[in-house]
Specification:
Elements (H helix, E strand, L loop, with lengths): L5 E5 L6 H17 L3 E3 L1 H4 L9 H15 L4 E5 L5 H13 L3 E4 L1 H5 L16 E3 L2
Parallel strand pairs: 1-2, 1-3, 3-4
Antiparallel strand pairs: 4-5
Helix pairs in contact: 3-4
Organism: Acetatifactor muris
InterPro entries: DUF7768 (IPR056670)
Pfam families: DUF7768
Length: 129
């Protein structure tokens, strides 16, 4: 790995779950393509918890925030910041974790690509509190 950072991937989940999962997977591939190790709690916990049950959704968010504390950066991916992403952003600022804003276009070009496909390094914009 080039940099070897552990980066927390934040992107929308609710709504178009199928499309949002594909987007999150592409964001993870983008991070891997830059030599980083992605963590995407919203790809993990919905496999065990029911996001439509408020208590389970809250538990998944809390566990994700705990994972965020072990990460080098938070990547906010896409064109909108969901409520869950807003919580992740606040926690990153609270913990002094650097935040990067990853444009939708940088991720979208990797959608539908399997993990073995070509990945190009992409630039990103910083987000400050």
């Amino acid at each position: 790995m080039a940099e070897g950072k552990i980066v927390y991937i934040a992107s929308p989940y609710a709504g178009d779950v199928e499309g949002n999962v594909e987007f999150a997977k592409a964001a993870c591939r983008l991070a891997m393509g830059q030599g980083n190790t992605p963590v995407a709690a919203h790809l993990l916990y919905p496999q065990m918890l029911d996001d439509s049950v408020p208590e389970q959704r809250e538990l998944g968010i809390r566990m994700g925030l705990k994972l965020l504390g072990a990460c080098s950066e938070l990547w906010l991916c896409g064109g909108r910041i969901s409520n869950g992403m807003q919580e992740e952003l606040k926690e990153a600022w609270k913990q002094g974790i650097p935040v990067r804003r990853i444009p939708w276009e940088a991720v979208a070009q990797l959608m539908g690509q399997d993990a073995g496909g070509q990945m190009q390094p992409m630039g990103y914009m910083g987000v400050s509190p």
